[in-house]
Amino acid sequence: MRVLISEVGPRDGLQNVSATMSTDAKKAWIKAEADAGIREIEVGSFVPAKLLPQLADTAEIVSYARTIPGLTVAVLVPNARGASDAIAAGAHKLTLPLSVSETHSLRNLRRTHDQVIEEAGKIVGMIKELPEDQRPHFEGSLSTAFGCTLEGAIPDAQIASLAERLMDAGCDEVGLSDTTGYADPSSVRHLVKLVRGVVGDDRLTGIHLHNTRGLGLANVLAALESGLDTIDASLGGLGGCPFAPGASGNIVTEDLAFMLEAMGIETGVDLDKLFAVRSIVEAALPGEPLYGFVTDAGLPKGFTQHTGKAELAA
Amino acid sequence: MRVLISEVGPRDGLQNVSATMSTDAKKAWIKAEADAGIREIEVGSFVPAKLLPQLADTAEIVSYARTIPGLTVAVLVPNARGASDAIAAGAHKLTLPLSVSETHSLRNLRRTHDQVIEEAGKIVGMIKELPEDQRPHFEGSLSTAFGCTLEGAIPDAQIASLAERLMDAGCDEVGLSDTTGYADPSSVRHLVKLVRGVVGDDRLTGIHLHNTRGLGLANVLAALESGLDTIDASLGGLGGCPFAPGASGNIVTEDLAFMLEAMGIETGVDLDKLFAVRSIVEAALPGEPLYGFVTDAGLPKGFTQHTGKAELAA
């Protein structure tokens, strides 16, 4: 078995810290993670610089990241305008978030569901104008899928309908996102089955999980057992969780990679090299807490990593 | 599905803090957890008071805990002498740890494997002298089963052989213990299958897991899927983990109960009442860090606990 760890720290992590990381530090971070074997990184978001000054250099970062061989350069796009910038910069993968809670969608993106679906259609239109070999992969991400801090649980029918509408608008696939840290292993299994039933097994392969209530890696296990093979995570759990002082927001890349490698699942990641990337982030964001258990505790005595290093050597 | 959460904080938690909790505070803690629906508590250990002054009042605590209706009063016994004291005090369940790493066994209990098995036999002898309705349940716990900080991985054949020898000595069942926090979901599945293959499915039902490397609840999920239904945990992760400053040692009772209840698995526990028990422990051990994610983050919006409360009402 093989799993793709999709690093979202340079986007989701940095978006949730007050400091701004220098462009050079971002490049060093991305390069070091790619060197450690991470093959997909969400490097930024095409939002107005005044909203997220931390990510104002996303175009330059995309341009740099594209020079790293074998790396899939992903970005978040809140709308068609952002997607236009992302395409111009040359991103390999665009993710448009669609909050299945309309209340959250209105507050977060200031758009109704209909409006977000309309943006998805516009983005597909732009992508189709490109030559086939230059078209980025386009994912619609069902955010707050496991419940919303404003609305609570979202009905299955609403989630299924929105997944279908994203595919109808022309997305290549949909993703599930536990924006609020409400997921548990049963709800992960349930939603994967529900959404795959609508869009097809090959059109839902990835999940974005948080560790807000400590269930992050248990939810990963449920996701893998449900057939998903792409898991988002953030180095050092960067960004934290405003609702839970001791908790990372995103699941921690290092702990995820350790779990998978310990289970004999190939990630392509060299754990020691991955752990060493923390020092780059620590130096670039002084005082910002980093999370992670395995980096505190160290690898088990006698732990030898077979799959990741073999993969890297191959 | 139904799972028994076995609270080990008053033994394993207190054993790993420097302060000594008053006997009255222990009683209040045990009573409050039982009131919250916890049905098994390891209340102490029968070791010489000079070694663990924190647990010197174990006989009195056992005596008190026996007055709580429906509560299984468990204790740890390092040897036959401890078991004799435990039987005299009236404990319902005795657990004898046998470290599958002989190096660890010699350092921790100062006994070889043969000597521990001999103690197990002596304990069985004592139990058999009792009238049938007064005999405590006797478990041999395979500690360091997932690897040892001194020896690293322990061969399967050695673990299987020791499980068999504990059963041959007359134990009612064996348990698995990830003393070092080395387990991962695959190794949990592997060892459960291995040991059940030797002792029979009904003679391995429980597991003791740590969260040292953040995999505690993922390992619980693997254990449940492997058919186990008794999970040790410690309120607030009390005792911490000396190797990982931010990590609880034992998995946190509150997070475990939340995960199970969120999954619709009956625990009999009222989450709100359980969370409230923390204040007793906090007041009794000032300055001692308590862990737990769900207690920081709060329950998800709209989360209604069906199984636990229904169970309690029934």
Provide the fold topology:
Two copies of one chain form a homodimer.
Chain A: E1 4-7, H1 9-15, H2 23-35, E2 40-45, H3 58-65, E3 72-76, H4 80-89, E4 93-99, H5 102-108, H6 113-128, E5 137-143, H7 156-168, E6 173-177, H8 185-199, E7 204-208, H9 216-225, E8 230-233, H10 253-262, H11 271-276, H12 278-284, H13 294-297, H14 307-313
Parallel strand pairs in A: 1-2, 1-8, 2-3, 3-4, 4-5, 5-6, 6-7, 7-8
Question: Which descriptors apply to this entry?
Answer:
homodimer, 314 residues, alpha/beta, TIM Barrel, eight-stranded parallel barrel, 14 helices, 8 strands, globular
What do these coordinates show?
2 copies of one chain form a homodimer. With 314 residues, chain A is an alpha/beta fold. Chain A has one domain: Alpha-Beta Barrel (TIM Barrel). Helix content of chain A is 42%, strand content 14%. The first copy, chain A, contains 14 helices and 8 strands. An 8-stranded parallel barrel of chain A has the order 1-2-3-4-5-6-7-8, surrounded by 8 helices. In chain A, helix 2 runs parallel beside helix 3, helix 3 crosses helix 4 and helix 8 packs parallel to helix 9. The longest helix of chain A is centred in the middle third of the chain and has 16 residues. The first copy, chain A, is globular, with a radius of gyration of 18 Å. The C terminus of chain A is likely disordered. At the A-B interface, helix 8, helix 9, helix 10 and helix 13 of A face helix 8, helix 9, helix 10 and helix 13 of B.
